Amino acid sequence: MPDWINVGSLTDIPRLGARVVATAQGDVAVFRTSSDEVFALLDRCPHRGGPLSQGMVYGRQVACPLHNWSIDLASGEAVAPDIGCAPRFPVRVEGGLVLLSLRDG
Fold first, then answer.
1. Torsion over CA: 36, 97, 63, 87 (sign)
2. Lowest CB count within 10 Å: 14, 16, 43, 76, which one?
3. Which pLDDT score, from 0 to 100, does residue 75 have?
4. From the CA atom positions of the chain, what is the Rg in Å?
């Protein structure tokens, strides 16, 4: 079942950075943490739609570049006191390749 798409090599995504994948559902940001964990969120902050892919990744969070909202990469939830959620997508690494599913996670 062609449920997963190949995004590229894990090393193509900078540590503490992101890569954007254009999809019919909108841009999806695929993030890599300093410990090589990989997460995928819709590339829109729930606050004002800022591009999360351009934010600073720290720990397991990303800071929106527009208004500094922190978004949890695992859940997509804004960190308190902010409220909102960025849709997340399943992502996994197999053999050094990053695979993304466009089904909501």
1. negative
2. 14
3. 97
4. 13
Close Cβ partners of 17 (under 8 Å, ≥ 6 residues apart): 31, 32, 57
Query: What are the structural domain ranges in the chain?
Result: 14-88
The verdict on domain 14-88 having CATH code 3.40.50.670 is no
Name the residue among 41, 44, 27, 34 with its Cα closest to residue 13: 34
Q: Tens of pLDDT along the chain (105 residues)?
A: 348 999 999 999 999 999 999 998 899 999 999 999 999 999 999 998 899 999 999 999 999 999 999 999 999 999 999 999 999 999 999 999 999 998 765
